[in-house]
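Thread: "does anyone have the structure for this chain?"

Original post by V.I.:
We have the sequence but no experimental structure in hand. Need at least a predicted one for the grant figures.
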Amino acid sequence: MARTFKLNVGWHDRLIRVLIGLAIIAGIWIWFTSERWLALIGVIPILTAIGGWCPVYETLGMTTDTTLTPERREK
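Reply from O.Q.:
Generated one for you, tokens below.
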């Protein structure tokens, strides 16, 4: 049975997640030259921004997607 993911990340949140992810990647790449693999941590917020779905938001029953009406949120 395939699981469908509801979008729960709004566009403001997506923009912030991309910026934070890029800042994490740049910061680790610049200051921690011996542990550059840690920059992969910055990929997580970028992927959730691209996909529009956050597992933490779903667990907490939250959404920042303002395009959803209350009727569509319950489906």
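V.I.: this helps a lot. The mean pLDDT is 86.
O.Q.: and The first helix runs from residue 11 to 31.
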